[in-house]
Amino acid sequence: MHVGFIGLGHMGSGMAHNLLRAGHDVIVYNRSHGKAEALASAGARIAADVAEVCRNEVVITMLADDEAVTAVTFGDRKMIAALGKNAVHISMSTISVALSDRLAEVHRQAGQVYVAAPVFGRPEAAAAAQLFIIAAGDAHAVQRCQPLFDAMGQKTFVAAATPSAANLVKLSGNFMLGAVIESLGEAFALIRKSGVDPHRYLEILTGTLFSAPIYKTYGTLIADEKYQPAGFKMSLGLKDIRLALAVADAHSVPMPLASLVHDHFLAGVARGHGDSDWCRLAELSARNAGL
Amino acid sequence: MHVGFIGLGHMGSGMAHNLLRAGHDVIVYNRSHGKAEALASAGARIAADVAEVCRNEVVITMLADDEAVTAVTFGDRKMIAALGKNAVHISMSTISVALSDRLAEVHRQAGQVYVAAPVFGRPEAAAAAQLFIIAAGDAHAVQRCQPLFDAMGQKTFVAAATPSAANLVKLSGNFMLGAVIESLGEAFALIRKSGVDPHRYLEILTGTLFSAPIYKTYGTLIADEKYQPAGFKMSLGLKDIRLALAVADAHSVPMPLASLVHDHFLAGVARGHGDSDWCRLAELSARNAGL
Amino acid sequence: MHVGFIGLGHMGSGMAHNLLRAGHDVIVYNRSHGKAEALASAGARIAADVAEVCRNEVVITMLADDEAVTAVTFGDRKMIAALGKNAVHISMSTISVALSDRLAEVHRQAGQVYVAAPVFGRPEAAAAAQLFIIAAGDAHAVQRCQPLFDAMGQKTFVAAATPSAANLVKLSGNFMLGAVIESLGEAFALIRKSGVDPHRYLEILTGTLFSAPIYKTYGTLIADEKYQPAGFKMSLGLKDIRLALAVADAHSVPMPLASLVHDHFLAGVARGHGDSDWCRLAELSARNAGL
Amino acid sequence: MHVGFIGLGHMGSGMAHNLLRAGHDVIVYNRSHGKAEALASAGARIAADVAEVCRNEVVITMLADDEAVTAVTFGDRKMIAALGKNAVHISMSTISVALSDRLAEVHRQAGQVYVAAPVFGRPEAAAAAQLFIIAAGDAHAVQRCQPLFDAMGQKTFVAAATPSAANLVKLSGNFMLGAVIESLGEAFALIRKSGVDPHRYLEILTGTLFSAPIYKTYGTLIADEKYQPAGFKMSLGLKDIRLALAVADAHSVPMPLASLVHDHFLAGVARGHGDSDWCRLAELSARNAGL
């Protein structure tokens, strides 16, 4: 397929590479030029501006946050103006439910198609085409995008017909990961202060009930107190939990555990750890235990 | 081996059966007689009192709580008085770290051996010899018990040389399960109020990052709002989180997530759901969201 | 002075009356006409639209929320367009710090003066000219407004030269009131479940350390479980704590108690109590204790 | 009256002095001898042991915690054995509801009278006979004690006929003070990070709705960040909130704000601030905000 791709950060670069590898014709755009050139050597064409990328049947955006997506989609020379009738915008960024709803509405009015398809997975998973893709939108449109999803991920889940449902699932998933990290942080503080070996402890956890790889991944980082380099930055973890709380607030759903995780990420960022891995949340529990 | 077994509840019955199946010579004692008889037909001998059970090289206790274990171990005609020199007491109940420390000391003074070996697993796992056993104590003593552990569990983990470390690991594990249930409860409240199908949602969670069976088990119960019969009662969940907080308090380890889970279990019990499955924790999130 | 007054709700009506009583020349505007007429009989002139109110040296706004203030101030025929050079806008509504900052900037650009002057006090205090007024802005401008403040309140406090500081103080004050209500709710649940008489208990609290009238006011409502009519609606309490958390989030200040109060107000609103007095927060503690 | 007095710490010394000043005949006992001698010069007799103090119609205990009270009351040569029939034990220490219930029962069985009478007030208030006394027990017995209460306090409140009700009221009051401190700590962190002057802010709080002296006392300490010397130690604040949570747990009353305050005091103690004033709780909010 002919695909436009906007946003070549840690995640986007790997994803665009995988589209090329799968034989798709990819034209890329990134605000800073350097990253686009690395993809050019892998066969991508480089667009001069957003408008040029939009001369495709499908355009993927993979950007940092609501602000970046808003900047690229709205305004005079931006995506919504540039995209053709029936063209598809696949928004794979982790954005708010509110912005996703707004994009759905605006694309609809412009006669365009909007599919939300945020992903689970760290940059290594993006590079290895091992992402989990959560797609939502018109069933036919999602089907049209499937070859692209196949190129980038290990599996695609269709959440619902309303695009923003995929964003909600993604945000709730990141909340649940935050809860896992918080619970590990508190448990490790207790274990360490009781004199039990953290690595032995982790082995027991992951060898019994907590067999999901996330426990191993995060537990190892916490046991090693190794928070650099960041697989996923604490500032982004804070952003996502904020977005989860925003939609919870809008729907009148109290989420006290989400509030707790939010407050702890906020403390981490306030203490200057926004660029550390979000697992550094565990350090707060350790510090508060006098460790 | 010749094994005494005290406590034939939901868990203990299955465990004793598995010891018999593995060819061990088992003499059982239970406060209410009926349960012992069921085991007799499977080949167990029935003891008239605690003292009779204690005329064995190894005695296992699998009781409800600290109170029950204290009643069986201390006092004039009880275990500590009745057990011989070098005999082993394997305490498999979920008890407090403080009681486990006290048992270690008292058995030591009596020239007896104390091994703590609490388990992870629901009654079905106990029946199927699929428990995870967390053992701690003198390395040689633990080794001596291994054939028994092999008969009851799928795998044994040795936590440390201090027996109570196993109890700590068990309690911290139940805290982490409580955290999983709380996070699922909040996420499902949000998802349901947003109109996303809960079963579809659960499929996405368990098909992506949350692949540990616990998420499937608890998530299904929550999606189905099926809290009877209880695999593990909320009153017991409350008891365990209380014990986790007690040791955390003793070691000056603040655990705000554990406090939150405690407060929610306490609300569930206060509302009359102590006999429901502890997953019913999720109902509080649903109710507070107006569902 | 010649004063325009916009917003004749529970608070605004009493305040406008007091301006009239103090001899000021008041022209009022309210979206729904009925309330303006009641003031006309007390000597107020009625404006046909916002623009007419703005032909005064000072215009006071006392509106429900950010949305109402935004609607009145921005747009083609609205306050900022209609107000003359050097005219003063006194914003007495409880609004966000962000909107207050924006108003300060926009009025400055228009050559106008902006003073923030939110108040502490319930409708009865507004009617009795017993409000506490928290003013912030250019010192000279605040001084110019003092005769008006004297007519409406019992005392004026000048918070800072930055107008939004007054809004911050107001929001933080409402957070602290929310904390008082939450603490009373939990304490009363405990007291009632222990069989102590709630009124006797309240008498002890207020007769000893908790002598501020707020404890008496809220404690009595909670002891009587009398949540209608609302002196201050729970939905507004939720709104204010949301605004407090928004500025805390923007400044990276974790406020776990504010999060807790927010989540409990949200539960109250989700359960259909948005129009009850915000003291009904206490009911959640009672319910969770099985009362 | 002839009064025995046990426990001459920061609080007890002042209280015993005031009994002497009011003309009562006081015999004192303290574990460490030095403090008793200071009272001897004011006219007190010094007892050699607990038994000697108990040869009086009324004996007051004012000790640090449950452990100290248990040591003095139970055992072979202790209060309950030494006290005569119909003699009154006034327990003014801040102890658990459970211990108070136990004392009531044991004294009753011994034909003695038990009155619980914990106090609100810092050491300066004890020295100035300005304590608030919360008494509970048999009405006639409380009346008998009134002259003593009058000598030590500014006002006595009778909580109920069950002695432990007074302890419950005291503990719940300390919980509410903890909530005030937490709310001040969070508000000051927000205010400081927003650039508002903390002392100006405090002046507004205490000049408006938060007029109770506790807000002035604690707010000033927090604004000054002056946590030494301790008027009331954080370790004692932690002890009291623990006791409040214990009775709440026993009565199935979830108190999430009490849990939050507990966890923060625990963090303070774990970080080595157990001997600081309990207001230092505010420092945690400041640190978590990066201040």
Q: Describe it for me?
A:
Four copies of one chain form a homotetramer. Chain A is α/β, with parallel strands linked by helices and 291 residues long. Chain A is 55% helix and 14% strand. Chain A has 14 helices and nine strands. In chain A, helix 6 (97-109) links the parallel strand 5 and strand 6 (113-116). In chain A, helix 9 (163-193) packs across helix 12 and helix 9 packs parallel to helix 14. The N and C termini of chain A lie far apart (55 Å). The mean pLDDT of chain A is 95. Chains in contact: A-B, A-C, A-D, B-C, B-D, C-D.
What descriptive keywords fit this protein?
homotetramer, 291 residues, N-(1-d-carboxylethyl)-l-norvaline Dehydrogenase, domain 2, 6-stranded parallel β-sheet, 55% helix
Q: Topology of this structure?
A:
4 copies of one chain form a homotetramer.
Chain A: E1 2-6, H1 10-21, E2 25-29, H2 33-40, E3 45-46, H3 50-53, E4 58-61, H4 66-73, H5 79-82, E5 88-91, H6 97-109, E6 113-116, E7 119-120, H7 123-127, E8 131-136, H8 139-152, E9 153-160, H9 163-193, H10 198-207, H11 213-224, H12 234-250, H13 256-270, H14 281-288
Parallel strand pairs in A: 1-2, 1-4, 2-3, 4-5, 5-6, 8-9
Antiparallel strand pairs in A: 7-8
Helix pairs in contact in A: 6-9, 9-11, 9-12, 9-14, 10-11, 12-13
